[in-house]
Design goal:
Blueprint (H helix, E strand, L loop, with lengths): L2 H42 L3 H10 L7 H17 L2 E7 L10 E4 L2 E4 L6 E3 L3 E8 L6 E7 L6 E6 L4 E3 L25 H34 L10 H37 L8 E8 L6 E8 L1
Parallel strand pairs: 1-7
Antiparallel strand pairs: 1-4, 2-3, 2-5, 5-6, 7-8, 9-10
Helix pairs in contact: 1-2, 1-3, 2-3, 4-5
């Protein structure tokens, strides 16, 4: 091959290389733009997992600078919106299980649990847990955007999912999952009744103090040997304060006792909703002073 032929061959090879590189760059650019457009469409349809893959494709170094930056920003935004769950399972004794197959919407995610966070699309999903020696547990759960690391635990002792919230009804084969029962809050009515009882006891104490203060004062002025004797009105005034004090104080005792019983019954029953009515009876004693208080709670 002479020198002229070598130059011609080299020029042809260089031209082919440049042409191929130009075609490749054009194809990469087109692929990047197509991935960006598809990712935006998937994102708008709330298919965040697929959208993330497309945004990652258009965030590559071969993509044009503007497209690459926008796609990288979109990936970060999707991560903050994408819900995720952490799967766990317990046996009938409450111990952790590892050999559990987990499926979501009919697709097997794992054959055993490892405690890792699993990203999913927002919306309704059907979770199925299977382990040897127990009936499968299947249930629908609603995942919200931005809900990260939600713990979903299959309790093979109770046949349900903990952390399922109000997500859905029990499903399929055998196990029939039931959402974990929600505990009711504290019995506010019991606290109100008990608190009112404490206030009444305090008011009764005030009347006692007034009665004993007047008795002490009258003994120093009208009672012998310093005086000729207290009048009936003065004596009646002291008795009235004592009777009022007894009635108010023991009404408070009854209310406080009723509130305590109410709270004890509430927590002993596991916080279940029950209708309760309370009645308080107060009556003077047969001796003309003091009061008898009683309380009745119907549950």
């Amino acid at each position: 091959m002479n020198a002229h032929t070598k130059h011609v061959a080299l020029a042809a090879l260089t031209f082919a290389t440049l042409s191929f590189g130009g075609v490749a760059r054009a194809d990469d650019k087109a692929a990047c733009i197509a991935a960006s457009e598809k990712a935006q469409s998937l994102r708008d349809d709330r298919k965040l997992l697929e959208a993330r893959e497309q945004f990652l494709a258009c965030a590559r170094d071969v993509c044009p600078g503007a497209v690459k930056k926008d796609c990288a920003d979109q990936v970060a935004a999707l991560v903050s919106r994408m819900p995720s769950v952490v799967f766990r399972a317990k046996d009938k004794t409450g111990q952790d299980l590892v050999a559990v197959k987990v499926s979501v919407d009919g697709n097997v995610l794992s054959e055993q649990l490892d405690g890792r966070s699993v990203p999913l699309d927002p919306g309704v999903h059907t979770f199925r847990f299977e382990t040897a020696g127990s009936e499968p547990i299947e249930q629908k759960i609603v995942l919200a955007e931005g809900e990260h690391d939600r713990a979903v635990t299959a309790n093979f002792g109770s046949g349900g999912l903990e952390g399922a919230g109000g997500g859905g009804a029990a499903g399929a084969a055998g196990g029939g999952a039931l959402a974990a029962p929600q505990k009711r809050g504290a019995p506010i009515g019991a606290f109100i009744v008990g608190g009112a009882g404490l206030v009444a006891m305090g008011v009764g104490g005030v009347f006692y103090a007034l009665a004993f203060s007047q008795k002490s004062s009258d003994e120093g002025t009208c009672a012998p040997p310093n005086g000729s004797g207290c009048t009936q009105d003065e004596i009646d005034s002291i008795k009235t304060k004592l009777v009022v004090g007894d009635i108010v104080f023991y009404t408070g005792v009854a209310a406080l006792a009723g509130g305590i019983v109410w709270a004890v019954i509430h927590y002993a029953s596991g916080g279940k909703e029950s209708a309760a009515t309370a009645r308080f009876d107060v009556a003077p004693t047969a001796f003309g002073r003091g009061a008898v208080a009683s309380t009745t709670i119907r549950w």
